[in-house]
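Dear Dr. H.,

I hope your travels went smoothly. While you were away I took the liberty of generating a structure for the chain from your last submission, since the lab meeting agenda had it listed for discussion. I wanted you to have the full record in hand beforehand rather than looking at slides cold. The sequence, exactly as received, is reproduced here:
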Amino acid sequence: MDTTRLKYFSAVAETGSVRRAAEILRVSPPSLSKAIQHLENDLGVKLFIRAGRNIRLTDNGRRFADR
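The corresponding predicted structure, in token form, is as follows:
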């Protein structure tokens, strides 16, 4: 598991925003979003619910964040 993807997941989970997390991490929002998608694919579960610009953790995402 890629530690960069874990860092990206944590930033999005904490901020509740891909755009804000990307600003903090100094990466582009599309690359951050893509990394999160790869992490979800690696784990085989959805970590976030996306609705337009809104993003929130799924139950699996909350459990993963608690680890």
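Two observations you may find useful: The longest helix spans residues 29-43. The chain has a mean pLDDT of 93.

With kind regards,
E. W.
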